[in-house]
Amino acid sequence: MSAGTSRGSLESDESGAPAWHTVAPSEVSRELDVDPRRGLTTEEAGRRLDEHGPNELTEDAATPLWRRVLALLTEPMTVVLLIAAVVSAVVSRELETPIVILVVVVFNAVLNLVQEQRAESNLQALQDMTVTRARVRRDGQVREVDAEHLVPGDVVLLEAGDVVPADGRLLETAGMEVQESALTGESAPVPKNADAIDEADSALGDRDGMGFMSTEVTRGRGVMVVTATGMGTEIGRVAGMLGTAGQETTPLQRRIAQLAKLLSVVAGVVVLIVFVLGLLRGAALEDLFLTAVSLAVATIPEGLTAVVAFTLAMGASRLARRGAIIKSLSSVETLGSTAHIATDKTGTLTLNQMTARVLFAEQRVFEVSGEGYGTDGEIRVTGEEPAPDVRAALLAMALAADAEVHDGELVGDPTEGALVVLAAKAGLDVDAARRDWPRAAEVPFDSSRKYMATLHRWEAAASESATAEWARGLAPEDRSGLRMLVKGGPDVVFGRSAWVDTPDGPVPLDDAQRARLDDLNADIGARGLRVMAVAQRDFAAEEIDPDVAADPAELDGQVRELTLLALVGIVDPPRSEARDAITQARQAGIAVHMITGDHVGTASAIAADLGIEGESVTGAELEKTSDEQLRGSAAGYGVLARVSPEHKIRMVDALRADGSVVAMTGDGVNDAPALKEADIGIAMGITGTEVSKGAARMILTDDNFATIVAAVREGRGIYDNVVKFVRFQIATAWGFVIIFLTAGVIGLAGGAPFTALQVLWVNIIMDGPPAMALGLDRAEDDVMHRPPRPVGEPILTRARVLRIVLSAVVMAAGTLAVLALTPGEEPAPGVATEAGTLAFTTFVLFQVFNLLNVRGRDESVFSRHTFTNRILWLSLAAILLLQVAVVYVPFLQGLFDTTALSAGQWALAAVVASSVLWVEEVRKAVMRARS
């Protein structure tokens, strides 16, 4: 409802919002009960603020700390560990085991909470897109107010450089253009006027009489009456859509949950078997419970959740240093399993800096180098003939523009910025030229005329400026006369031109010349470039009435019989690093889909330049495609042009339909729903809106698409590191299982080859530094040459299980052999013997060698990368020193039931333990030969 009035006859658009764009400005003012000349009174503005609320986007409340802790404590693996701690404390009446387990649980929780808080702090620091002040008419005066205090009916004054603070109906405009790429995806500024249009359901980009919150005025000025604020704006409507898009668990979380269930079942079966065997053997019940709990801890790799959290945290820290802020630890791994990246074009794949690429002047075609608003680059003529003089065309481009470019920074319209930079690349001092050729009058650009005309006097006859030499030969024959410069769409400028400039002077623009220009215009446009035409006309002093020159409407009648000077092809150039990133993504089996509001021709040309493969489709074509059809064809689309936020969500859903993991990148409000719907949304930190940052799981502080590929590599490496730890831990656990079951069946060492504390000791030293060191391992060389992992692939694949079983069998066999064959007193529970100590030490050394094994899938341990992880080698050294202490320090000997070993016994333990390395080296050699 409008403020204080009924909207009985006001149409609504397809979303149900009032179709203010179909209503004349005078009617809008009546509907909103405001005098546009005076604005609202302070009292009325306050009443409406109470009615409508502040002009801000609502945010979800932060998850309270207790709920975060509860979520961590209710994860399946953590629940199993807490149960084991309770059982251990109750049965054994000792605190060693429960303390170890609780330390791991607390470490995991603290690490996750700290990392999440750090990410949220970084996100808060990035949210700097909010409009803070607006100029309004209140009580008949122009005032500045906080944008959040705007209400429907407020009359807002806008000019170039302002950010539109709310949605509103334009009441009047003067050459006004607005950059709406954050809302519609269209990279070029949109001309605005106060005219009403008939179609209530017209696209946002076609509502020329409306201003939208968070868009930027690039040119001209306007007066707007606010029609919607906060969540009632178009941005608010998009933000509201986020509430319907759910967040699913990530692939790694699902794999870890599956593994926890599997290992819990295995642990239960093993503990039951050992317990029953002990009962049959007549063992003491208390000893049996202690052994059973120890085996449960050994069978469940209790360090898994902590190592996963540590590995993800390290990856997140590395990514933050490279320009990516992770809002959720598991998002790094999710990106690593991505099969599709649906990315916005403007500012993400491109520089968001319009650049001239092609110049046609003096009957010749020139190629222009350089990118963006920097003046590095040159204008090179094609062909063998000498380059003609194109200074007149370049001077016209600089003068018939309002944009200013200084040190690579643009103020004004991006297209004009491209023309100004083009002139500067040829050596023109634009500021000096504008002083030498001051503007006397102008016809502002609007969507109906599709051109801009400026009228200039030449005042540089005695100038010593940098443009003085350029001025010679370029000034009008009548030095007291005027020169009109025109730029606009080629069809419009062609229609008003009678001549075309050549190296021999102007010649008539006959049918042959027009046909050639039409073909050239089509060729440049086919390259995805926006084409602008530039022309001029000289007037003698007596040819033009000063009163006519001062009236744009009258001056418009003189825009005829022009001399065409040039055609310019302009493009928002792709980022050079984006090309390389897309190539790497393709090598990694990741499909890139460019989604944009641009026209399909422009988008397709940019996609081809970037190396994006696939068909091009428009939003209108998607409207005619059913969801089922889209699911079958979405993977083959490389370009989606002229699309709406709803189309983006449909595309993401279609790509996810087969179980593929989809990442969505973007910087605009229009990207936010799809960012939320995707498995991982990636927002731009510099150009991104507040809504898109809130919807994303990762934010790129450098807006660099290449950072995404680095994150993919990091994510894959992280998953590999998790798999390494799983292989390492389960091989140890299953080695324990085989040893205890075999000893129980044959009665070796009284069915208890290791004491409970020895079992825990192995788990403590294996869960600590070595496991953490695996989390720091570098990604393998081929990590970006593998296809994405199948979404349903468990962590324990058949191949990995076979490797684990092989290692566990070798370690168990070697340990049991040492235990059975070492001469001396037979090992027994609670009795320190050489055989028991040697078997214990051999099993520890087995872990050292197996740790080296798991670092590479099929890469030999003797490769050049073996010594790259310094932390791992320091960890191994620490393990050996600790084991030496356990064997020789009297106090520890009493705790662990050990006795001193000779040098020969240490050598024997090392030789036996190394067998697991040699067996695995043979397997790796076979796999490398097969591949």
UniProtKB/TrEMBL annotation:
Residues 19-93 form the Cation-transporting P-type ATPase N-terminal domain. Keywords: ATP-binding, Cell membrane, Membrane, Metal-binding, Nucleotide-binding, Translocase, Transmembrane, Transmembrane helix. Its main location: membrane. Residues 28-54 have a biased composition (Basic and acidic residues). InterPro entries: ATPase_P-typ_cation-transptr_C, ATPase_P-typ_cation-transptr_N, ATPase_P-typ_cyto_dom_N, ATPase_P-typ_P_site, ATPase_P-typ_TM_dom_sf, ATPase_P-typ_transduc_dom_A_sf, ATPase_P-type_domA, Cation_transp_ATPase_P-type. One of its GO terms (molecular function) is P-type sodium:potassium-exchanging transporter activity. The keyword ATP-binding applies. SUPFAM superfamilies: Calcium ATPase, transduction domain A, Calcium ATPase, transmembrane domain M, HAD-like, Metal cation-transporting ATPase, ATP-binding domain N. It holds the Pfam family Cation_ATPase. Residues 1-57 are annotated as: Disordered. It is a multi-pass membrane protein. PANTHER family: CATION TRANSPORTING ATPASE (PTHR43294:SF21), SODIUM/POTASSIUM-TRANSPORTING ATPASE SUBUNIT ALPHA (PTHR43294). This is HAD-IC family P-type ATPase. It comes from Georgenia subflava.
